């Protein structure tokens, strides 16, 4: 029997362990990818500790991977053996990123932009999809997937602009709303980069406590139409809601993190999951369209990357490091 290695989590809270398993073969609509790099996400350490969205045990964690196509199912037309790709991963052990051969449905896979290393490419998928879901959650169209959509929002606050989700959302919002006021919060060392990605003005995180400067930066000084809370900060810092224009649509979207904000009266809160994008208008092409977005320069790497090691054994210490927090950085492991 030919075997490959995977990093298994036997149960929540236990140790990640390298295990040999039978080499996978693809179903008709699946792609097997030899992993060359994986990115580490907050969801991975939360799953390791609490198993929050683990469908079955033992689990193979990891939602972001990049590598080389090893095998394709009979119905797969758009990829062939040897193609360099990136993929959203996870939701089944064979699909987890933290293994030698990742087996995923073809709609989760995109060609790797030639300009990106495997490590850079691995940093993209889940943050891009979650940024897209957060933008959609505000009713703003994803113009690269649905060019006919429109939105009347004129001003939006992106909370946590230096996160992978936040910096992705700023870019997608700017594509959809070329003349909107897009304000964002982050620590100051990221402001120049976030302006280059499309933000109109950046604020230190202290503006989340006293939002007067944010409100003053909106066109009429009355506050923003909507908040895209990339880091679910509204759950612990409800003062952020005071940035909203009381006479505006008062929309708030945020990725699901397990911490739910309490909506003040009249505020509509829309929690989103990255995978929701596939069900949105044009969303079936969400991953394949990412290649063109990057190659055309419309979507840049949202964060810098830092390679924290090589091999499956480097993933667990990498997750320990991620738990302590990162700033404008995606941690990546080469395989
Ligand atoms: N449900 C889903 O489908 C889904 C998918 C992906 C991610 N998520 C969740 O979305 C969140 C963002 O993920 P990510 O990968 O983009 O995170 P990340 O890049 O690891 O986030 C780190 C950044 O968050 C910023 N930050 C942290 N706390 C903040 C706060 N209270 N206010 C403002 N900024 C804050 C930091 O900003 P500074 O250092 O500049 O201060 C830092 O740059 C995570 O909670 C993750 O679990 C959910």
UniProtKB/TrEMBL annotation:
<dbReference type="InterPro" id="IPR013154">
    <property type="entry name" value="ADH-like_N"/>
</dbReference>
<feature type="domain" description="Enoyl reductase (ER)">
    <location>
        <begin position="13"/>
        <end position="333"/>
    </location>
</feature>
<dbReference type="InterPro" id="IPR011032">
    <property type="entry name" value="GroES-like_sf"/>
</dbReference>
<protein>
    <recommendedName>
        <fullName>Enoyl reductase (ER) domain-containing protein</fullName>
    </recommendedName>
</protein>
<dbReference type="InterPro" id="IPR047122">
    <property type="entry name" value="Trans-enoyl_RdTase-like"/>
</dbReference>
<dbReference type="InterPro" id="IPR020843">
    <property type="entry name" value="ER"/>
</dbReference>
<dbReference type="InterPro" id="IPR013149">
    <property type="entry name" value="ADH-like_C"/>
</dbReference>
<keyword id="KW-0560">Oxidoreductase</keyword>
<dbReference type="Pfam" id="PF00107">
    <property type="entry name" value="ADH_zinc_N"/>
</dbReference>
<dbReference type="Pfam" id="PF08240">
    <property type="entry name" value="ADH_N"/>
</dbReference>
<dbReference type="InterPro" id="IPR036291">
    <property type="entry name" value="NAD(P)-bd_dom_sf"/>
</dbReference>
<comment type="similarity">
    <text>Belongs to the zinc-containing alcohol dehydrogenase family.</text>
</comment>
<dbReference type="GO" id="GO:0016651">
    <property type="term" value="F:oxidoreductase activity, acting on NAD(P)H"/>
</dbReference>
């Amino acid at each position: 029997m030919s075997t490959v290695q995977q990093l298994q989590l036997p149960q929540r809270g236990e140790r990640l362990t390298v295990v040999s398993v039978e080499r996978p073969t693809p179903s008709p609509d699946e792609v097997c990818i030899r992993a060359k790099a994986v990115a580490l996400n907050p969801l991975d350490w939360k799953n390791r500790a609490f198993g929050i969205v683990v469908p079955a045990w033992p689990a193979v964690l990891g939602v972001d991977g990049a590598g080389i196509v090893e095998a394709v199912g009979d119905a797969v037309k758009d990829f062939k053996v040897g193609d360099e790709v990136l993929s959203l991963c996870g939701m089944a052990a064979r699909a987890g990123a933290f293994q030698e051969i990742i087996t995923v449905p073809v709609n989760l896979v995109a060609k790797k932009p030639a300009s990106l290393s495997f490590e850079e490419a691995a940093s993209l998928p889940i943050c891009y999809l979650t940024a897209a879901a957060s933008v959609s959650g505000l009713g703003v169209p994803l113009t690269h997937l649905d060019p006919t959509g429109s939105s009347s929002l004129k001003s939006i606050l992106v909370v946590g602009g230096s996160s992978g989700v936040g910096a992705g959302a700023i870019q997608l919002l700017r594509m959809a709303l070329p003349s909107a006021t897009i304000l964002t919060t982050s620590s100051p060392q990221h402001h120049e980069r976030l302006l280059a990605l499309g933000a109109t003005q950046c604020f230190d995180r202290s503006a989340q406590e006293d939002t007067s400067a944010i409100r003053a930066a909106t066109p009429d000084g009355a506050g923003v139409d909507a908040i895209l809370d990339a880091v679910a900060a509204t759950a612990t810092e409800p003062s952020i809601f005071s940035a909203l224009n009381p006479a505006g649509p008062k929309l708030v979207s945020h990725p699901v993190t397990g911490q739910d904000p309490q909506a003040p009266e009249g505020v509509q809160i829309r929690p989103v999951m990255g995978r929701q994008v596939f069900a949105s208008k044009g969303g079936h092409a969400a991953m394949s369209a990412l290649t063109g977005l990057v190659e055309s320069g419309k979507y840049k790497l949202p964060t810098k990357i830092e390679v924290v090691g090589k091999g499956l054994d480097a993933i667990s210490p990498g997750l320990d490091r991620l738990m302590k927090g990162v700033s404008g950085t995606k941690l990546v492991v080469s395989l």
